[in-house]
Amino acid sequence: MDIDLLGALVVREQGISVTPTAPKPRQVLALLALNADQAVPAATVIEELWGATPPLRARTILQNYVLQLRELIGAALRQAHDAAPRSAKDILVTVPGGYLLRTGEGRSDVREFERLAGAGYRAVDAGDYPRAVRRLSEALALWTGRVLADVRTGPHLEPQAARLEESRLGVLEQRVDVTLRLGRHRELLAELTALVSRYPTHENLCGQFMLALYRSGRRGEALSAYQRLRTALSRDLGLEPSAALVRVQLSILASGPSRSAGHEVFAAPRGSHEAHAVTSAG
Predict the structure, then answer these.
(1) pTM for this structure?
(2) I want to staple 116 with a disulfide (CB 3.0 to 4.6 A). Which of 70, 139, 195, 222 is the partner?
Protein backbone atom coordinates (compact mmCIF):
# COMPACT_ATOMS: atom_id res chain seq x y z
CA MET A 1 0.00 0.00 0.00
CA ASP A 2 1.29 3.43 -1.00
CA ILE A 3 0.31 6.46 1.07
CA ASP A 4 0.58 10.16 0.22
CA LEU A 5 -0.32 12.61 2.98
CA LEU A 6 1.89 15.62 2.23
CA GLY A 7 -0.77 17.36 0.20
CA ALA A 8 -4.03 15.73 -0.85
CA LEU A 9 -4.80 12.30 0.63
CA VAL A 10 -3.96 9.54 -1.85
CA VAL A 11 -3.90 5.89 -0.77
CA ARG A 12 -3.31 3.16 -3.35
CA GLU A 13 -3.28 -0.61 -3.19
CA GLN A 14 -1.51 -2.28 -6.11
CA GLY A 15 -1.45 1.14 -7.78
CA ILE A 16 -5.22 1.50 -7.58
CA SER A 17 -6.81 4.25 -5.49
CA VAL A 18 -8.70 3.15 -2.39
CA THR A 19 -9.36 6.72 -1.23
CA PRO A 20 -13.07 7.26 -0.56
CA THR A 21 -14.88 10.43 -1.62
CA ALA A 22 -17.19 10.74 1.42
CA PRO A 23 -15.73 13.06 4.11
CA LYS A 24 -16.02 10.81 7.17
CA PRO A 25 -14.52 7.65 5.62
CA ARG A 26 -11.72 9.85 4.21
CA GLN A 27 -11.07 11.10 7.73
CA VAL A 28 -10.93 7.54 9.05
CA LEU A 29 -8.52 6.48 6.32
CA ALA A 30 -6.36 9.56 6.88
CA LEU A 31 -6.01 8.82 10.59
CA LEU A 32 -5.15 5.18 9.97
CA ALA A 33 -2.74 6.10 7.15
CA LEU A 34 -0.95 8.74 9.22
CA ASN A 35 -0.47 6.06 11.88
CA ALA A 36 0.14 3.23 9.42
CA ASP A 37 1.33 -0.10 10.85
CA GLN A 38 0.26 1.03 14.31
CA ALA A 39 -2.95 0.13 16.14
CA VAL A 40 -5.38 3.04 16.45
CA PRO A 41 -8.02 2.61 19.18
CA ALA A 42 -11.62 2.84 18.01
CA ALA A 43 -12.21 5.44 20.72
CA THR A 44 -9.52 7.61 19.13
CA VAL A 45 -11.14 7.33 15.70
CA ILE A 46 -14.56 8.18 17.17
CA GLU A 47 -13.14 11.24 18.93
CA GLU A 48 -11.45 12.31 15.69
CA LEU A 49 -14.76 12.07 13.81
CA TRP A 50 -17.14 13.61 16.33
CA GLY A 51 -15.12 15.21 19.10
CA ALA A 52 -16.57 15.07 22.59
CA THR A 53 -20.17 14.53 21.41
CA PRO A 54 -20.31 11.34 19.33
CA PRO A 55 -23.68 9.94 18.21
CA LEU A 56 -25.25 7.10 20.19
CA ARG A 57 -24.41 4.56 17.48
CA ALA A 58 -20.88 5.84 16.92
CA ARG A 59 -19.20 2.42 17.00
CA THR A 60 -21.71 0.96 14.55
CA ILE A 61 -21.26 3.91 12.20
CA LEU A 62 -17.47 3.54 12.46
CA GLN A 63 -17.74 -0.16 11.63
CA ASN A 64 -19.72 0.81 8.51
CA TYR A 65 -16.97 3.23 7.49
CA VAL A 66 -14.37 0.50 7.96
CA LEU A 67 -16.52 -1.83 5.86
CA GLN A 68 -16.62 0.79 3.07
CA LEU A 69 -12.84 1.10 3.16
CA ARG A 70 -12.43 -2.67 3.00
CA GLU A 71 -14.73 -2.83 0.01
CA LEU A 72 -12.50 -0.33 -1.80
CA ILE A 73 -9.37 -2.29 -0.85
CA GLY A 74 -10.96 -5.57 -1.90
CA ALA A 75 -11.97 -4.11 -5.25
CA ALA A 76 -8.40 -2.92 -5.81
CA LEU A 77 -7.03 -6.37 -5.00
CA ARG A 78 -9.41 -7.99 -7.46
CA GLN A 79 -8.73 -5.45 -10.18
CA ALA A 80 -4.98 -5.89 -9.78
CA HIS A 81 -5.31 -9.70 -9.78
CA ASP A 82 -3.21 -9.77 -6.63
CA ALA A 83 -1.45 -13.12 -6.50
CA ALA A 84 -0.82 -13.01 -2.75
CA PRO A 85 -3.39 -14.83 -0.61
CA ARG A 86 -4.63 -11.63 1.00
CA SER A 87 -8.00 -10.09 1.70
CA ALA A 88 -9.01 -6.57 2.61
CA LYS A 89 -9.15 -7.68 6.25
CA ASP A 90 -5.46 -8.55 6.04
CA ILE A 91 -4.70 -4.94 5.10
CA LEU A 92 -7.19 -3.03 7.20
CA VAL A 93 -6.96 -5.20 10.29
CA THR A 94 -9.26 -5.34 13.28
CA VAL A 95 -7.13 -5.50 16.42
CA PRO A 96 -8.27 -5.60 20.05
CA GLY A 97 -10.00 -2.31 20.66
CA GLY A 98 -9.26 -0.74 17.31
CA TYR A 99 -7.85 -0.94 13.77
CA LEU A 100 -4.49 -1.12 11.99
CA LEU A 101 -3.62 -0.28 8.39
CA ARG A 102 -0.81 -2.45 7.03
CA THR A 103 1.42 -0.95 4.35
CA GLY A 104 3.38 -4.12 3.61
CA GLU A 105 6.13 -3.29 1.12
CA GLY A 106 4.47 0.00 0.14
CA ARG A 107 5.77 3.51 0.52
CA SER A 108 4.72 6.46 2.65
CA ASP A 109 5.66 10.00 1.68
CA VAL A 110 5.80 10.94 5.39
CA ARG A 111 8.34 8.22 6.11
CA GLU A 112 10.33 9.14 3.02
CA PHE A 113 10.30 12.80 4.05
CA GLU A 114 11.58 11.93 7.52
CA ARG A 115 14.27 9.63 6.07
CA LEU A 116 15.56 12.26 3.64
CA ALA A 117 15.38 15.03 6.23
CA GLY A 118 17.38 12.90 8.65
CA ALA A 119 19.99 12.24 5.98
CA GLY A 120 20.16 15.96 5.27
CA TYR A 121 20.66 16.86 8.92
CA ARG A 122 23.40 14.25 9.26
CA ALA A 123 25.14 15.70 6.21
CA VAL A 124 25.00 19.15 7.83
CA ASP A 125 26.56 17.75 11.00
CA ALA A 126 29.31 16.17 8.87
CA GLY A 127 29.97 19.46 7.06
CA ASP A 128 28.93 18.00 3.69
CA TYR A 129 26.82 20.97 2.62
CA PRO A 130 26.26 20.03 -1.05
CA ARG A 131 24.88 16.65 0.02
CA ALA A 132 22.80 18.31 2.73
CA VAL A 133 21.17 20.64 0.20
CA ARG A 134 20.37 17.70 -2.10
CA ARG A 135 18.78 15.59 0.61
CA LEU A 136 16.84 18.44 2.23
CA SER A 137 15.61 19.57 -1.19
CA GLU A 138 14.49 16.03 -2.01
CA ALA A 139 12.58 15.91 1.27
CA LEU A 140 10.81 19.18 0.55
CA ALA A 141 9.99 18.11 -3.03
CA LEU A 142 7.70 15.41 -1.64
CA TRP A 143 5.26 18.07 -0.50
CA THR A 144 2.50 19.01 -2.93
CA GLY A 145 0.52 21.20 -0.52
CA ARG A 146 -0.68 21.43 3.05
CA VAL A 147 -0.81 18.13 4.96
CA LEU A 148 -4.11 16.36 4.22
CA ALA A 149 -5.25 19.40 2.26
CA ASP A 150 -8.55 17.80 1.25
CA VAL A 151 -9.42 16.09 4.54
CA ARG A 152 -11.40 17.48 7.45
CA THR A 153 -9.15 17.27 10.50
CA GLY A 154 -10.28 16.73 14.09
CA PRO A 155 -8.57 16.63 17.51
CA HIS A 156 -6.14 13.86 16.56
CA LEU A 157 -5.30 14.61 12.94
CA GLU A 158 -4.92 18.35 13.53
CA PRO A 159 -1.92 18.20 15.92
CA GLN A 160 -0.22 15.49 13.87
CA ALA A 161 -0.63 17.59 10.73
CA ALA A 162 0.68 20.65 12.59
CA ARG A 163 3.75 18.68 13.71
CA LEU A 164 4.52 17.73 10.12
CA GLU A 165 4.08 21.32 8.94
CA GLU A 166 6.47 22.44 11.67
CA SER A 167 8.95 19.80 10.58
CA ARG A 168 8.66 20.96 6.98
CA LEU A 169 9.40 24.54 8.00
CA GLY A 170 12.42 23.39 10.00
CA VAL A 171 13.79 21.48 7.02
CA LEU A 172 13.17 24.49 4.80
CA GLU A 173 15.07 26.80 7.17
CA GLN A 174 17.96 24.36 7.35
CA ARG A 175 18.14 24.02 3.57
CA VAL A 176 18.14 27.81 3.17
CA ASP A 177 20.86 28.14 5.80
CA VAL A 178 23.08 25.54 4.12
CA THR A 179 22.51 27.15 0.72
CA LEU A 180 23.66 30.46 2.20
CA ARG A 181 26.74 28.74 3.61
CA LEU A 182 27.55 27.62 0.07
CA GLY A 183 27.39 31.24 -1.10
CA ARG A 184 24.33 30.68 -3.31
CA HIS A 185 22.44 33.66 -1.90
CA ARG A 186 21.12 35.07 -5.17
CA GLU A 187 19.18 31.94 -6.05
CA LEU A 188 17.30 32.22 -2.73
CA LEU A 189 15.98 35.75 -3.14
CA ALA A 190 12.71 34.95 -4.93
CA GLU A 191 11.91 32.08 -2.59
CA LEU A 192 12.70 34.08 0.55
CA THR A 193 10.65 37.03 -0.72
CA ALA A 194 7.63 34.75 -0.85
CA LEU A 195 8.40 33.13 2.50
CA VAL A 196 8.72 36.34 4.49
CA SER A 197 5.45 37.49 2.95
CA ARG A 198 3.79 34.26 4.07
CA TYR A 199 5.42 34.32 7.53
CA PRO A 200 5.73 38.05 8.32
CA THR A 201 6.75 37.53 11.98
CA HIS A 202 9.19 34.64 11.45
CA GLU A 203 12.57 35.91 12.60
CA ASN A 204 14.70 33.10 11.17
CA LEU A 205 13.38 33.59 7.67
CA CYS A 206 13.70 37.35 7.94
CA GLY A 207 17.32 37.03 9.07
CA GLN A 208 18.11 34.71 6.19
CA PHE A 209 16.37 37.10 3.78
CA MET A 210 18.38 40.02 5.16
CA LEU A 211 21.62 38.12 4.67
CA ALA A 212 20.73 37.03 1.13
CA LEU A 213 19.82 40.63 0.22
CA TYR A 214 22.96 42.05 1.78
CA ARG A 215 25.24 39.58 0.06
CA SER A 216 23.52 40.41 -3.23
CA GLY A 217 24.47 44.06 -2.82
CA ARG A 218 21.00 45.14 -1.66
CA ARG A 219 21.90 46.50 1.76
CA GLY A 220 19.06 49.04 1.90
CA GLU A 221 16.47 46.35 1.16
CA ALA A 222 17.97 44.13 3.86
CA LEU A 223 17.53 46.89 6.44
CA SER A 224 14.00 47.55 5.17
CA ALA A 225 13.17 43.87 5.68
CA TYR A 226 14.21 44.23 9.32
CA GLN A 227 11.95 47.24 9.78
CA ARG A 228 8.98 45.38 8.24
CA LEU A 229 9.51 42.48 10.61
CA ARG A 230 9.79 44.83 13.58
CA THR A 231 6.53 46.52 12.62
CA ALA A 232 4.76 43.16 12.17
CA LEU A 233 6.03 41.83 15.49
CA SER A 234 4.90 44.95 17.34
CA ARG A 235 1.52 45.10 15.61
CA ASP A 236 0.62 41.41 15.71
CA LEU A 237 2.37 40.10 18.82
CA GLY A 238 3.36 43.10 20.88
CA LEU A 239 7.01 42.04 20.69
CA GLU A 240 10.35 43.48 19.66
CA PRO A 241 12.87 41.58 17.49
CA SER A 242 15.11 39.16 19.33
CA ALA A 243 18.64 40.09 20.32
CA ALA A 244 19.91 37.70 17.64
CA LEU A 245 18.10 39.51 14.85
CA VAL A 246 19.12 42.89 16.22
CA ARG A 247 22.74 41.71 15.99
CA VAL A 248 22.22 40.83 12.34
CA GLN A 249 20.80 44.31 11.69
CA LEU A 250 23.64 46.02 13.55
CA SER A 251 26.20 43.90 11.70
CA ILE A 252 24.77 45.02 8.36
CA LEU A 253 24.65 48.64 9.51
CA ALA A 254 28.26 48.52 10.72
CA SER A 255 29.58 46.76 7.62
CA GLY A 256 28.62 49.47 5.20
CA PRO A 257 27.65 48.84 1.57
CA SER A 258 30.51 46.45 0.81
CA ARG A 259 29.41 42.82 0.52
CA SER A 260 32.84 41.61 1.56
CA ALA A 261 32.79 43.35 4.95
CA GLY A 262 31.54 40.29 6.80
CA HIS A 263 29.67 37.01 6.63
CA GLU A 264 26.61 36.80 8.85
CA VAL A 265 24.94 33.42 9.20
CA PHE A 266 21.46 33.41 10.69
CA ALA A 267 20.23 29.96 11.59
CA ALA A 268 18.03 28.07 14.02
CA PRO A 269 18.93 25.07 16.13
CA ARG A 270 17.18 21.99 14.77
CA GLY A 271 13.61 21.72 16.02
CA SER A 272 13.53 25.28 17.38
CA HIS A 273 12.44 28.67 16.16
CA GLU A 274 14.89 30.39 18.53
CA ALA A 275 17.39 31.96 16.17
CA HIS A 276 21.04 32.68 16.67
CA ALA A 277 23.48 34.82 14.73
CA VAL A 278 27.13 34.02 14.15
CA THR A 279 29.42 36.61 12.66
CA SER A 280 32.85 35.77 11.31
CA ALA A 281 35.39 38.11 9.84
CA GLY A 282 35.42 38.54 6.12
Answers:
(1) 0.86
(2) 139
